[in-house]
Structure formats: C-alpha cells, structure tokens
Amino acid sequence: MSRALDLDEQVDDLVLLLDLVRHGRARTRPELARRSGLGRTVVSARLTRLLDADLVVEGELGPSTGGRAPRELRFRAEAGAVLVAEVGATGFAVGVTDLGGALREHRHRAWDVSAGPEATLDRIADDLEDLRGDVGDVAPIWGLGLGLPGPVEFASGRPVAPPIMPGWDGHPVREHLAGRFGVPVWVDNEVNTMALGELRHGVARGVSDLLYVKIGTGIGAGLVTGGRLHRGAQGAAGDLGHTAVHEDSGIVCRCGNRGCLEVLAGGGALARDAVTVARGGHSGRLAARLADAGELTARDVVEAAREGDQESRRMLEHAGVLIGTTLSVAVNLVNPAMVLLGGQVGASSDQVLAAVREIVYRRSLPLATRELRIEPSPLSGRAGLIGAATMVVDELLSPARLVRWLQDGSPVGRADLT
Amino acid sequence: MSRALDLDEQVDDLVLLLDLVRHGRARTRPELARRSGLGRTVVSARLTRLLDADLVVEGELGPSTGGRAPRELRFRAEAGAVLVAEVGATGFAVGVTDLGGALREHRHRAWDVSAGPEATLDRIADDLEDLRGDVGDVAPIWGLGLGLPGPVEFASGRPVAPPIMPGWDGHPVREHLAGRFGVPVWVDNEVNTMALGELRHGVARGVSDLLYVKIGTGIGAGLVTGGRLHRGAQGAAGDLGHTAVHEDSGIVCRCGNRGCLEVLAGGGALARDAVTVARGGHSGRLAARLADAGELTARDVVEAAREGDQESRRMLEHAGVLIGTTLSVAVNLVNPAMVLLGGQVGASSDQVLAAVREIVYRRSLPLATRELRIEPSPLSGRAGLIGAATMVVDELLSPARLVRWLQDGSPVGRADLT
C-alpha cells in the first residue's frame, strides 16, 4: 500500500525519465539529470525502478575520456511486442513491432473496407495470428494498435459516422480485438497514425507543428500542434477531403455531398478520369493499360506520368492545384513547420508535389511559408503501422499504466481481457 | 540555498494548486486534494507557502453541514495589478486589471498604427500612466500585456513581418515598454489575446478547441487546440485574412497580394463598397450618412442593415459567405467545439453571423458540426484587454517566476527593468 502510494508520487518522474531515454534525448545519468531538471539522487533512485523492471538497461563503461566515463542507458525495446494494423479503403496491412516501433515483419492484403467491421476485423485478426506465428520467437504481446480510414472517438476506440465505412459507425472495435488477443487495444484515424509515425520515427522528428496529408483513394490529414496529435472536439480533425471546392460540380462524393476535394482530386477521381481519357483516345499509354488490365488505378496514372504521358501529368497537376488551394488555407491557419504528402499518390507523384508547392508558396502568407518544408513522406507506406505502434507504447507508458507495469511486471490488466 | 532547492522541487505542485484555486476549480482543501491528486499533507504544506505569500487567502468557517465545514480558499486577485493594451488598425485601448483579469478601468483612442512603433508605444505608455493615476489606489503593477494586429514572435515579443504595420517589423516592443514601467512585458497577436479572454473568462471557458475570428477592419483568427493557444512555427498561425479567395480580383490587399479574404470581406472592404453604393444611388440611408460624415465605416453598414437597408444587408451577407467558405475549411481541419465571431463587424452583424452559420453547417463535415457552436463573442470589445491580462498572469505564475515571487515577495526581477 505504501509502496503503491509511493509509486503514484514518483510516476511523473518515471514517465519523464523513460521518455528521455526512449526518444534518445538522454543516454547517460548526467544527461538525464540535466534534461529532466531532477537532482542526481532522485534520478538514481527512479532509474533503479526502471532498471529493476527491465524497461531500461545500462551498458558497459565506455572508454574514459578523463573523469569517470558514464554508462550508456538504453530503452529495452525488445522487452515486448506490439501488433499493428492499418486499414485503407482498398486494403489493409498488418505488422509486428518492438516497443520502439521498429517493424519486424509486415504484410498487405487487398480488401474492401465496406465488407463491414465483423468480417474485416476477423480477417485482420487471422492475419495477425499468422504473422505472429511466422515471426516465431516474439516477445510478449503487450498491445494492439489499429488505424482506420475515418474519424474515430479516441477515448472509446469507436468509429464515428465514417463517410466511407458503411456499418462501422459506433462499432466496438477495441472490444472486438481485445477479446481475441487479451491485450489492450487503441484505435485512431489512419492518417493520425501516419503523422505519428513520421513525427516520432521519421523525417518530422522534433517538429512541433506538422500537417500530414494522405492522398490515396481518398484525401485526409493528420494535424500535430505543439508536438501532439490534434484530434478535435469529435475526433474529426483533419478531414480536408470533404471540403467543398466546386459545389456546382455534378459529381457526388462517397460522403453524399457534391464537389468535395476528394471526389475531384483523390485517387478515385484520378482513376475515373483516366478511364475517360483512355476511352476518348487522348492517351495511348492509358488506353493500352486499360485494355490489358480491364481497369485503371491512380497508380497507373502516376506511372504513366513518370513515363512522360502528357494527359496523366495534366491530371495530376490539376489534382495538385486543387489540393494546394485547400492546403494554403490550412497553412495560413496552422503555420506548420512541415507539410508531408503521403499515400499512393501523395508520396510518389512529382506533379502533385510540384503543384502543391507552387500554390501554397504563392497563396499562403510569406511569413507562414518562409521556413515551411513541403515534402513527400519518406515512410509513407509504413508510417501508419509504425505510428500505430507508437500510439500503443505511448499509452502503455502513460502514468496509470506504468504504475501497474512496475507493480505487476506487465502493463496488461484484467480490464483489458474482455 | 536549501530552501531555494526545496522550492524548485515543490514548484510544480504550487503552480498546479494555484491554478486550481485561481480558475475556481477547487475552493477547499479537500477539493484541492481530490483535483490535484496530491495527498492532504502535501496540499497543506504547499498551501502554507501560498498563504504566506498572500497569493491565496483562506476565508472564515462556513456553516457546518454535519462534519467540520471546510474554509473557502480564494486567489488574491487584488494582490497586484496588470497594465494592458490592445492595438487595432484604427485605434488602441488601454486598461488596468487585477490579477484575475477583471478590468478596473479602460479607455479607447483613435490611432493609426502605421504611425510606427515609437510614436504608438509612447502614446500608449502615456495613456497607461494617465489611467494608472486616475484609478488611484492601485495595487503594485506586476506586468504589462500588449496585443498587436499582426504576427508576433512570442518568445521575444517582436512583431514579425506584420502586413499592416509598416516600421514595426522586429521592433523591440517588450524592451521599449519594460524600460518605461520597470515591469515584465508580454506581447502577442491581438486576436490571440481575444481568444484567451473568452477562453479563460468568457463564454469559451472549459472549451478545449476554439476558433476565434475577429472581423474588424481586417480579418484574423486565434486558434486554441487542447486548451492552449496555438501560435504556429513562426507565430503566424491564425492568419485567415490573407487567404486568397479570388485571385482574379483586381483589388490589392494591404499585404500586397490580390483577392485576399480580408480585402474582399473585411471592414475596410465594407466601407469601400458602401461608398460606391451610396454614390451610385442604391441606398438612401448610406448616401445620407456619407453626406453627413464625409466618410463611411463598416459600423455604418452594420447599423444601416439593422435599420432595414437592403443594400447593406446584401453586402454583409456577401462578406459572410466569403468568410464562411474559408471557415468551413478551418472547421474541417481543426474540428473545434466553438467558433466565436468578434470585432466590430463579427460581433454585431446578424447578417454575417447567419451567412457564416449557413455556409459552415452546409459545407463542413456533419460530424465536425454536429455539436459546433458558432456565436458572436460576448466580450468582444474587452476580450483583448482581459486576454492580455490573462497572458501576463499566466506567465507570472509560471514555475520560474513563481519561485522568484515566493523568495522575493515580488515576481519582478532585475532582468525585467531594462
């Protein structure tokens, strides 16, 4: 009892020290004291707890450089494993990571999310089981993280009125998966997990204000303010895809409205327009591809553009202009230090990147773009899985969970097993 | 020395307890213990320090309701005073508040901000001196807060490339005023201080995600995410006024670009269009007013609309539609719980409010608007002054300053007096 109380009082220090080691911002005891602002005695006492719990390990003495060489501290990322999955409109990926977010193995499966939550989650769970079996000597699984292509109420892990996921509204996703694996589960919008992946393990490390824009079949954004994911009042933040850009457009979006950015400039729109172009005889390359495959995708347009197809380049530039116009409002409002373009189209089309850059640099406030970097997301395809793992580990190492971990030797409690 | 070290270790608790009392979230010792998560013994020990420093007072015993009645705790807002000023494009306001942000006295002066920093800041300082003299028995002045109509680098208190303030770029505003009054000075964009005023003392209390839109001569926004002001990577966040809405418009904005939202829908645009309408014989009311006064302002348009003038109503509706269209992107991106319209036009035009509501509710994602409140800012004219005081007190009660306060009996150090 007194030990538990004692832990409660120390837990903020413990979380702080663990974060410093985990994110590589402090590698020795003196660095920990300096960065945390805690006294050396306090650092030593707290560190003993983290060493006892095998969350941190202390290495050998380094070579002396005059004075006593400090031992190197390291977060024991191999102490546990995390199962992760990322669902898009036309497929999902599953993976296994360590506690540091490093992907040990991952796989992709073509899948239609409109198959509904039961079938989709069961398929994901089966694939995760298979993957876990194939990976073999895996550490204890301590959590599961899932990204979904729509708004999610983060506290409950339930989708909220997702425009492109019929049947998923309010589905108890967390309970469904927690019951199967007996570990705690966290669920978020997949663009949020992608942003988190780049923020914590990618090119956006150390960036405080980030706008991550996924341009795949649909268009969505993940917003980071002050170093933290901004989810908004209903978990709907980042929904740039359903901004109305041409209300007089006759094209109806999956969300039911007309003229949304996504239905005019997303991957679905590119595929649709590509078929028209191919059938109209305006692009030999696209026509040949359509004849071969029986359909065209946004990826076909990006590849044809790379090979020099003028119509494909024009389509991608047009999409980039529409996306850039909406992003210029976002840049003025948020003044991010970095905009990352991810997703099949965003991360790989030079035309989209160039058009977005041109529009945003021209139309946003000079001060807001003076040091703004607009770049493709280097992690793109893996950012969502890595971010989902990060989300899980952040939650596992939150104060309440960490107290349980240090008391019971595991972060998983009885409440997680239902 | 040991007492100072001791203070350093306790200061996070002290800030937490003081915030709970100051914001009315805890009024008794048991409430403090419950809300802070600290033990009762710790609460009592820390509270003694705050009582000794006269920052908190403990009232008489209340009537017993069975058991011992707890004494009521109160933040001693009267312990110090704060000088505040808010600069707009066409005038500034000065005021004196207590530490709770309550305005004791305030005044407005018509003034052209393009007169430059030296003349403007000297005039403000003179008016603050006069006001302080007139108020009389004022507590010690412990800080000065200033809102400016442009981007400000908060850490240095310097304007950064402000579009409508020629000569102010990089001016050492803080040093200028600190030298005159011998107190610490904090400077921010005036829309940020307005947002802070409503967030902490107005209708947005308890709101975590807020978008405050000032529609005066210009148009600007203050963004609150996760309960904190979001200033962005260069302090330029919230600049919706210079979003391009009609690039093919021939009208050049004060910022140098064409077709900005502000130059088409701000108060300056309304005044300009009102003159055209009056001269063209389309509005007897506006023509009469123009003949009387020799000029027309946005306020004239708002008043004429209230009296039934159709052309004025049409102009305000048009402005509202343009503003609403830009805001719908902001609402989709941020998913705020509340949008407040402030400024001379924003807080008082029914037509602008109605048009903004209609456009945002129609064009933003249903989930993002399901519980969204769009309202005029009730504090509007005073929100900036109250927010500036709040900014100052927040900084004075930050850990480093609080340590000094408790040691020296004053939050003002030698470094502030230059």
UniProtKB/TrEMBL annotation, chains A, B:
Arranged from A to Z, the UniProt key words for this protein are:
Kinase, Transferase
Pfam family of this protein, just one? Answer: ROK
- Record InterPro entries: ATPase_NBD (IPR043129), ROK (IPR000600), ROK_cs (IPR049874), WH-like_DNA-bd_sf (IPR036388), WH_DNA-bd_sf (IPR036390)
Fetch the SUPFAM superfamilies from UniProt.
Answer: Actin-like ATPase domain, Winged helix' DNA-binding domain
Q: Name one GO molecular function term.
A: kinase activity
Q: Which family does it belong to?
A: Belongs to the ROK (NagC/XylR) family.
Q: What protein name is recorded for this chain? A: Putative NBD/HSP70 family sugar kinase
The beginning of the lineage is: Bacteria, Bacillati, Actinomycetota, Actinomycetes, Pseudonocardiales
